[in-house]
Write a structure and sequence with these properties.
65 residues; alpha+beta; two-stranded antiparallel ribbon; elongated
Amino acid sequence: MSQEQQTLSNLDLVERVDSWPYFTKGPEAYRRHMQDYHYFLVEGYDDPFGYIHNDFVAVRYSRPP
């Protein structure tokens, strides 16, 4: 292994490639990103179970004219 290469742990790798705008790290970036998503909610639970991008909803549920 050359001196330029370094060994990274799995956690180091995840931190380098994880670009999700977490609310706790940047609330405004999170809000901007999430404006393009629908929240998948289940009655009785406070937190979303997932997210669905608006493009998917528009294609999946669009009605022909």
